[in-house]
């Protein structure tokens, strides 16, 4: 297993990677895009912090890459959509640097209120100036926290201890949660208009880019102070520089920038009422150990085929959800794999049905496993849970999920209906208590077959001699039949047969079966 560490990551994380079975860990930091493209060609796992840019071109060169581990929260240095298209899992370490980032924000808040760096500088320049650095107390002031996730919440808790009134704005903040935190649940306008200090703690997204811009600054109180320890770009830096120059904003403390490292002629550098740090929010011994260990652990689990968490391009399931859904994930993949081998022609639509109590759960992961099974028939290992929805989109297949609260015959039933230019096919499966997954329906015919190993599936005219002749052909080829299921609606009509066989059916034998009089469809299935 080739693992490349491209940024400065704590030795604790690197050791975890080195201790993985068969791992070869290379540490090479500070690479240009071209160097990274060369270095990554044979790599299965890449670990980065925020410095390395994992672009679409880098990913194009990464022919064997399975996972990108980000030792930290923000994944904006990684082209996640491009990784998803290529089936590469992106894992981050969301919790390990929360406290450090919150403490850095708080350090910035205090620094801003008491001019500490400016006063320090004046002493070093030989002055004893006590007049220029009169500060303001935090007690009794209002702090607007924009984004009350992990870090925003920790900042709010600390501000409360300092006697501040905290207003929180976040689309996911509920009234109850605000009450629990002792903060005011505010709209964006209410928060920015009332605040003496404003701190942003959102990710950088389309919605949050330039969240604080010239219009927002105009609505703020005169003398407001601004902090950004989240992501460069959430604040419009040009507009901030103008508001600082105009005296509208009394001070700003900024850790993160639209362009990092910031250019020497950046407008904020020349301003006295600004405190700048070079993206240090997560730079503590503790945070770096935490995130490196967390991400190395999850990347290690993934590489070993074990359950992992914190994938940003896969839906997350709680432990409880996982326990309930696990058998359906396996069944879904088997149904997809079976249908992928059974159905021919150009497919335009796939409908995945969930009937029974299972429909009440988040079944989007099951849908992914069905699609992964389906696409792995065509794309082999290049199809996975990460890129399966993208492959559907790319191949023009409409995917629909249909839920019914109650199953008619089975407590829980999973169905897969596929429409192609050759007609419609439907397979269905369920879980029998103690017997595991079963295929219970093929194209409207009831069967009861274990979905495993090599199988022969046929649709044929229900007439004497069919089954015997197929059995003889298989027998002559040395293929033993382990189990047989036949489903039919009426005598002499059409029937479906599912044979479990002990080895793969030779191509020539399958061709001969397909040509038999009365055979409508015959397929060798490998699950
Ligand atoms: N400076 C650093 O070194 C450093 C360290 C750690 C994290 N960070 C950054 O801090 C930010 C917050 O990290 P976190 O761990 O608290 O993330 P989080 O996901 O726990 O919280 C982000 C919050 O922002 C909210 N949000 C999203 N869009 C919003 C919008 N349009 N308006 C208001 N709220 C919105 C979300 O609902 C969420 O509650 C991220 O950008 C992360 O990359 C920076
Ligand atoms: O790697 C770093 O030090 C920055 C991390 C931080 O920006 C994050 O989003 O977790």
What can you tell me about this protein's structure?
With 527 residues, this protein is an alpha/beta fold. The chain folds into 4 domains: 110 residues, NAD(P)-binding Rossmann-like Domain (Rossmann fold, 3-Layer(aba) Sandwich), CATH 3.40.50.720; 179 residues, NAD(P)-binding Rossmann-like Domain (Rossmann fold, 3-Layer(aba) Sandwich); 138 residues, 60s Ribosomal Protein L30, Chain: A (2-Layer Sandwich), CATH 3.30.1330.90; 75 residues, ACT domain (Alpha-Beta Plaits). The protein is 34% helix and 24% strand. The protein has 17 helices and 22 strands. Strands 8-7-6-9-10-11-12 form a 7-stranded parallel sheet, with helices on both faces. Strands 14-13-15-16-17-18 form a 6-stranded mixed sheet. Helix 1 packs parallel to helix 12, helix 13 packs parallel to helix 14 and helix 14 packs across helix 15. The chain starts with a strand and ends with a strand. The mean pLDDT is 95. Bound molecules: nicotinamide-adenine-dinucleotide and (2R)-2-hydroxypentanedioic acid. Nicotinamide-adenine-dinucleotide binds next to helix 5 and helix 7. This is D-3-phosphoglycerate dehydrogenase. Keywords: Amino-acid biosynthesis, NAD, Oxidoreductase, Serine biosynthesis. Pathway: Amino-acid biosynthesis; L-serine biosynthesis; L-serine from 3-phospho-D-glycerate: step 1/3. It catalyses: (2R)-3-phosphoglycerate + NAD(+) = 3-phosphooxypyruvate + NADH + H(+); (R)-2-hydroxyglutarate + NAD(+) = 2-oxoglutarate + NADH + H(+).
């Amino acid at each position: 297993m080739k693992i490349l560490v491209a940024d400065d990551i704590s030795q604790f994380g690197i050791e975890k990677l080195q201790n993985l079975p068969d791992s070869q860990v290379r540490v090479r930091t500070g690479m240009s895009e071209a160097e990274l493209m060369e270095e990554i060609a044979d790599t299965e796992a890449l670990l980065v912090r925020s410095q390395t840019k994992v672009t679409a071109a880098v990913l194009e060169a990464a022919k064997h890459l399975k996972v990108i581990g980000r030792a930290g929260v923000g994944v904006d240095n990684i082209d996640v959509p491009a990784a998803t298209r290529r089936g590469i899992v992106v894992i981050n370490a969301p919790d390990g640097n929360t406290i450090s980032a919150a403490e850095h924000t708080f350090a910035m808040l205090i620094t801003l209120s008491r001019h500490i760096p400016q006063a320090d500088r004046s002493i070093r320049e030989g002055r004893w100036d006590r007049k220029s650095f009169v500060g303001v107390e935090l007690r009794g002031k209002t702090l607007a926290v924009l984004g009350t996730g992990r870090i925003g919440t920790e900042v709010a808790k600390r501000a409360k201890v300092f006697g501040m009134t905290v207003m929180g704005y976040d689309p996911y903040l509920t009234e109850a949660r605000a009450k629990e935190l002792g903060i005011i649940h505010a709209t964006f306008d209410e928060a920015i208009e009332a605040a003496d200090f404003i701190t942003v703690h959102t990710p950088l997204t389309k919605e949050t880019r330039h969240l604080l811009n010239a219009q927002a600054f105009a609505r703020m109180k005169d003398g407001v102070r601004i902090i950004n320890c989240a992501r460069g770009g959430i604040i419009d830096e040009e507009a901030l520089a103008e508001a600082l120059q105009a005296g509208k904003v009394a001070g700003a403390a900024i850790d993160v920038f639209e362009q990092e490292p910031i250019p020497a002629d950046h407008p904020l550098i020349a301003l006295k009422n600004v405190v700048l740090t070079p993206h240090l929010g997560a730079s503590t011994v503790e945070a770096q150990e935490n995130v490196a260990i967390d991400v190395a652990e999850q990347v290690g689990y993934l590489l070993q085929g074990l359950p992992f968490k914190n994938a940003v391009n896969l839906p997350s399931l709680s432990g409880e959800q996982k326990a309930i859904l696990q058998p359906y994930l396996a069944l879904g993949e088997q149904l997809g794999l079976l249908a992928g081998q059974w159905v021919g022609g150009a497919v335009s639509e796939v409908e995945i049905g969930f009937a029974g109590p299972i429909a009440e759960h988040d079944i989007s992961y099951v849908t992914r496993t069905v699609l992964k099974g389906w696409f792995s028939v065509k794309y082999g290992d290049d199809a996975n849970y990460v890129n399966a929805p993208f492959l559907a989109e790319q191949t023009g297949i409409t995917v629909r999920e249909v839920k019914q609260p109650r199953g008619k015959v089975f407590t829980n039933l999973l169905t897969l209906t596929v429409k192609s230019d050759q007609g419609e096919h439907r397979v269905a499966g369920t879980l029998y208590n103690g017997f595991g997954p079963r295929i219970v329906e093929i194209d409207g015919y009831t069967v009861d077959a274990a979905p495993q190993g090599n199988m022969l599936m046929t649709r044929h005219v229900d007439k004497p001699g069919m089954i015997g002749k197929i059995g003889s052909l298989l027998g002559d080829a040395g293929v033993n039949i382990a189990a047989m299921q036949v489903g039919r609606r009426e005598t002499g009509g059409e029937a479906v047969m599912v044979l479990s066989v002990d080895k793969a059916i030779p191509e020539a034998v399958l061709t001969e079966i397909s040509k038999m009089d009365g055979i409508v469809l015959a397929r060798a299935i490998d699950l």
